[in-house]
Amino acid sequence: MYPPPLTVESLFTPQLAMLPGQDVGASTRSLHADDILNVVPDVTPPIHVATTFRYPDDPEKLTPAAELTGGYEDNKTSHVYSRLSAPNFTRFETILSALLNGEAISYSSGLSAFHAALVLLNPRRISIGNGYHGCHGVIDLFTRLTGLQKLDLNCPAEQLEAGDVIHLETPVNPEGTSFKIEEYAKKAHSRGAYLIVDATFAPPPLQDPFKWGADLVMHSGSKYFGGHGDVLCGVLATQNKEWSRQLFKDRVFLGSVMGNMEGWLGTRSLRTLEVRVQRLSQNATNLVSWLHNALQTQNPSADSDEDVTQKALKEVFHSSLQKSDESWLLKQMPNGFGPVFSITMNEEEYARKLPSKLALFQHATSLGGVESLIEWRTMSDTTVDRRLLRVSVGLENWEDLRNDMVNAFRALVKG
């Protein structure tokens, strides 16, 4: 009835016990990293909705909390209360630990994960770019509580001290362009500071920030890890065992745990993460390439696709267009440049109206799902150019998405 305890050490590895000494692919890890947690015959993991769990009936198997040699986080199959651990999000974390190459801790949202990272590190200064406005809101809370000082992302290294943080979002929201992780890691570590990388826009298998010096990796799991627009969660990953234990303990008191249903849905989605992300990224790159080439076309024929694109569209932003950075970018993102890009229209009114002219792109915030979304970004972010729209490319045929966008440009221009 009660299986033997599973330890962190037996799970914290990208190599599966069934294939000792062999590093297996990401899709294999997505499907089998949690096999060690199978305690029922169901092929698909069951949904567990309980928040509290029975202790063993045998008094000899009762271990008081004060006598635990590690902690509740060490036992992956024996649960007490869902604020500590529960079957569904423990399974989700186990798979992610194998995919992210670090111990993964899940949270109720991406901002909860960022909050937990700042609680862990408690920096006096944080160097950060524009990026996601929600992170700046969390920093504002810490500024009120601790006096946390915000520095520019590209501030001189001399402004940083030991224990400070550089928070690097790459690819960055909303543009979808990339920064060189290694450069910021060297800058942080030269001053005794830490590097947090928000890699939401480049999930596995696109980018591994640990390979380039990240100390903590953050994801809004609501995006690609959920992948279907129905999961709200956040994730932190670290290769520092002491940090992972502290994050687990902190989460117990922060209370920002994933719900049972979200943990189950997240596990479902991770099974297809690699194939989804690679297809999404390739679709986006194809679409970006066509739009960029259309803007570069000299003297296009009147009313041609290129002509109406030039009349409606001003600029395209995406990592794939960073040609001068290819020497490092192709190493940092060897498997694709990410499914999100942004466009700037020639007029604000075009940006306002474009979503209403599209048939295949849904006008909504968020990203990372199987369907294509577009957002007039000023609807949710007060800091951006009002001519900018963020595009999250889905699994539709990319030529269909191109035709839909060109038809919308033509309608705008003629209108």
Overview of the structural elements:
With 415 residues, this protein is of the alpha/beta class. The protein has 13 helices and 12 strands. The strands form 2 sheets. A 7-stranded mixed β-sheet has the order 1-7-6-5-4-2-3. Helix 3 (87-100) packs parallel to helix 8. The longest helix is centred in the C-terminal third of the chain and has 24 residues, at 273-296. The radius of gyration is 23 Å and the shape is globular. The model is unreliable at 1-21 (pLDDT under 50).
Give the tags:
single chain; 415 residues; alpha/beta; seven-stranded mixed beta sheet; five-stranded mixed beta sheet; 13 helices; 13% strand; disordered N terminus
Secondary-structure map with pairings?
Blueprint: H1 8-11, H2 26-32, H3 87-100, E1 103-107, H4 110-121, E2 125-128, H5 133-146, E3 149-152, E4 165-169, H6 181-190, E5 194-198, E6 216-219, E7 234-238, H7 241-254, H8 260-270, H9 273-296, H10 305-312, E8 313-317, H11 326-332, E9 340-345, H12 348-357, E10 362-363, E11 373-376, E12 388-392, H13 398-414
Parallel strand pairs: 2-3, 2-4, 4-5, 5-6, 10-11
Antiparallel strand pairs: 1-7, 6-7, 8-9, 9-12, 11-12
Helix pairs in contact: 2-3, 3-8, 4-5, 4-7, 9-10, 9-13, 10-13, 12-13
Strand order of the largest sheet: 1-7-6-5-4-2-3
Which class of secondary structure composition applies to the elements?
A: alpha/beta
Structure summary, number of beta strands? 12
The N- to C-terminal Cα distance equals 69 Å
Task: Characterize the overall form.
Answer: globular
Tell me the number of helical segments per DSSP (H or I, 4 or more residues long): 13
